[in-house]
Design a protein that fits this description.
- By secondary structure, this protein is mainly alpha-helical.
- About 45% of the residues lie in helices and about 10% in strands.
- It has 6 helices and 7 strands; from the N terminus they run βαββαααββαββα.
- Strands 1-3-2 form a 3-stranded mixed beta sheet, with no helix packed on it. The protein has a two-stranded antiparallel sheet with strand order 4-5. Strands 6-7 form a two-stranded antiparallel ribbon.
- Helix 2 (about 45-55) packs across helix 3, helix 3 crosses helix 4 (about 95-105) and helix 4 (about 95-105) packs across helix 5 (about 130-150).
- The radius of gyration is 20 Å and the shape is elongated.
């Protein structure tokens, strides 16, 4: 299994992929970056990393106190969103499990406190754990954003970076198929090397 680095362990220096500034769900999908050697830089790999990612996207307060179970829910949604992006880019049917996960996140956004009863307080309004409520809200917003991306006018611009080993998605602009200048340079260098090392046919 490939090692997943924490954000403090590796600095990729990559800017957000084109389109991520408009679609937080695209940034979520790109929050685990493939590195050379089969390793990944996972911005959501720890509770503190997940908390910071949500803070950076105005989806949680800095003192939310994210726990691993909540960070795992965010990583799980990321994988389901990535599955939907991959099938869209590849022109394949959407996986039922990914659709169900996104729809589940959409329906979990709390709109009202449920009614409860116990022998001490009698009838009362209950509230979920505050962290759960924050995460539910964030997951719902990200799921809705993913749905907007996949069904809106930008869906036709959605593509995967064509530079190996990059695993990021982006919104294509013109003929650009790379998520960053670095990936573009790497792809051009790989093509130039392949041309130099080709043996002429006999």
């Amino acid at each position: 299994m490939s090692e997943i680095e924490t954000p403090d362990a590796v600095d990729t220096g990559l800017p957000p992929a084109p389109g991520a500034e408009h679609y937080p769900a695209l940034d979520l999908a790109n929050s685990a970056i493939a590195l050379r050697g089969g390793q990944f830089l996972d911005s959501l790999g720890t509770p503190s990393g997940a908390n910071q990612w949500l803070v950076d996207h105005n989806l949680a307060p800095a003192d939310a106190g994210m726990q691993e179970i909540c960070a795992a829910r965010l990583r799980s949604l990321r994988e389901q969103v990535r599955a939907l992006l991959a099938t869209h880019v590849g022109g394949h049917p959407a996986p039922a499990t990914a659709l169900a996960a996104v729809n589940d996140a959409l329906t979990r956004v709390p709109t009202a406190s449920p009614l409860g009863w116990d022998s001490v307080r009698g009838m009362h309004r209950t509230a979920p754990h505050p962290i759960d409520q924050i995460v539910d809200q964030a997951l719902g917003i990200l799921a809705a954003d993913a749905a907007d991306l996949l069904t809106g006018p930008d869906a036709e611009r959605l593509t995967a970076c064509t530079s190996t080993p990059c695993n990021r998605y982006l919104l294509r602009s013109g003929r650009r198929h790379w998520c960053s200048v670095r990936c573009g340079d790497r792809a051009r260098a790989a093509r130039a090397y392949a041309r130099r090392t080709q043996t002429p046919a006999d």
